[in-house]
Specification:
Layout (H helix, E strand, L loop, with lengths): L6 H4 L10 H9 L5 H5 L5 E4 L1 E2 L11 E12 L7 E6 L5 E6 L3 H8 L6 E10 L2 E5 L3 E3 L10 E4 L8 H13 L10 H7 L4 H10 L3 H28 L23 H14 L6 E6 L5 H14 L3 E5 L3 H15 L6 E4 L5 H13 L4 E4 L13 E7 L6 H7 L8 E6 L5 H8 L3 E5 L10 E6 L3 H13 L3 E5 L7 H19 L3 E4 L5 H12 L5 E4 L12 E6 L7 H8 L10 E6 L5 H12 L3 H15 L17 H20 L7 H12 L4 H8 L1
Parallel strand pairs: 2-3, 5-7, 10-15, 10-16, 11-13, 11-14, 12-13, 14-15, 17-22, 18-20, 18-21, 19-20, 21-22
Antiparallel strand pairs: 1-9, 3-4, 3-6, 4-5, 6-7, 6-8
Helix pairs in contact: 7-8, 8-14, 8-21, 8-23, 9-10, 14-21, 18-20, 19-20, 20-21
Bound molecules: adenosine-5'-diphosphate (ADP) and magnesium ion (MG).
Length: 685
Amino acid sequence: MRPDLLNALFAEVETLDGVGPKLKKPLDKLGLTRIRDVAYHLPERFVTRRSVANLDEASVGEQVVVALTPTEHKGSSGRGPYRVLAQDEIGNICSLTYFGRASYTAKKLLPVGEKRWIAGRIDQYGQMLQIVHPDHVVEASDDTLVRLCEPVYSLSEGLTQPKISGLVEQALARLPDLPEWIEPRQFEAAKWPSWRDSLKLAHKGEHEAARERLAYDELLANSLALLLVRADNRERKGQALIGDGRLREKLELPYSLTGAQARSVAEIEGDMVQQTPMLRLLQGDVGAGKTVVALKAMLIAAEAGKQAALLAPTEILARQHFETLRVMLRPTGVEIALLTGRDKGRARESILMGLLDGSIDMVVGTHAIFQDSVNYKDLALVVIDEQHRFGVAQRLMLSNKGRSTPHTLAMTATPIPRTLTLAQYGEMDVSRLDEMPPGRQPIDTRVVAQERFADVADGVARHIAGGQQAYWVCPMVRENENEDIAAAEARYAGLKERFGDQVVLVHGQLKPDLKDAAMERFASGQAKLLVATTVIEVGVDVPAATLMVIEQAERFGLAQLHQLRGRVGRGSEKSVCLLLRGHTLSETGRERLALMRETQDGFLLAEEDLRLRGGGELLGTRQSGDTPFRVATLEQITRLLPKAHDDAKILMERDGGLSGKRGEAARILLYLFDRDWGVQMLRGG
Ligand code: ADP
Ligand code: MG
């Protein structure tokens, strides 16, 4: 149960003044549902404004505060913006420009003939200066003038900076005083402010120590939760599985295992003979050959007379796995079944019977295989494909299915750096497939200047004319989602003029049925060119697609480029990847693209990605999606995680875990960061 001290923080955002159904939606979109979320909605950056006497003193692009007197309101004609013309002290005219519903505010805030203090960014509009959606409009007496440094928050449609600032202020006023959870010596040495002060300071200005402490808290919570899980796992009883090799012997593989595969199988076998349940991660790039490793592990279970299950993230992948495994298992006589949410009636009943009486040795499926209605005779091994989509918590809930705790093997195709492995999986054991099966054709990767666009399009035309397929990838960054979608649509329109019906478009804002239809046309070979934003990163497998063009490649992270490029080079034909680069390329950008050209080693690219991005990161920019954190940046993770991890260990091993005085504080920390599954672990055990 959540400690009472946290009640104020976990109250819904609706309890803040001014939050009704209308604001609820934009707040939800940012993931801000509780007071805690608002307090942790840290500024992306700060603006420092300069106060100027008149517009001559300001330059275009600058953030200023200036006194202006409205002279005329020009209502919007049709779809145009609403403009208020205003004059400074020496007669310069500036347009205060509002789009959409904001024009109602403009009418109220800017009466003609009355001087106002305006804060905003000066832009050029034709011959005139303009300020689009001023951040503040106030009467002269207000204190805006002295608040020259202010936070800039990420917004969603329907929110403004002043609104979110107001909510943050209210949330900060409700912060309780929480006991200190950081190890006392570590806390002293770091000279960090308390938790509450840190949150307040982090909203006020670029306060390094405060930001650092908040990131550390999150890392500590995560490490601690993972250690609790690990400790719990050690106390559980599993089954020692000893395989005699009789089934594995019967496999008729057309190849021999690579060194990395053989080593991984040996590591897995070493875990499975122990009574402590295995918790192992198998990491290997797409195509590294994880399936056969999983198969061997499942056969060990079968040799020991037990059952094994393979969990896939989607129905399609489950089917694919089932087909592959069924064929490979044929010479062994092992019974394998497929179970997905789609299976109903008789067929389903007979599979359920088979799992219960043990006549089915292995099952492949989506999470349907762990529903309450599914019971196993003796489930001893669970293999999870694409671990990152499930999360540690769910995995552990699943593993209660067997009579005793089954061994768990998680597989992921995302080669992540060692530090991030620690962050996501804690001290889970790791096997790495860092060696590709022989005979892979390397993907010919070239960096091409954007100016040579016409040549690239000609190349695509020749490629398609030769009967092959291609991807055309446009960048997609969260901050300018709409612009990026527009760019992708424009590109699609242009290519359609040339290639007609052979082109299809897929992006994240497309309705699911349209998206599926487009993918289907491409996968079946009807369409030859797929224009896409980064949605194709996961789950597409079209071996006949052997060319990939990536526009503005410098805007992607290395790991992301690598994942994208992995979509080609899947058939026997030679594949090409063209990285188009803009003409302004930073040093880092140049280095990135050069690396892409030189190597196809996913682990190396992941490490370099972290190094290159980590260093250049701006205050507060998070790379969402590739870490389980909302506060800590990549740079902070790299630097602070080892310390936080040690700190968590000290708590577990020396300071009595969650039972001592520090433990009470740590319990609060776990709830604060939604790592309470760590707490539940203890209770369950
Ligand atoms: P992953 O799941 O890691 O992406 P797969 O298990 O699907 O990769 O294997 C990719 C391909 O490589 C499959 O066609 C598989 O038969 C083949 N393969 C796996 N191991 C070897 C090996 N040691 N030698 C040659 N080919 C292999
Ligand atoms: Mg696979």
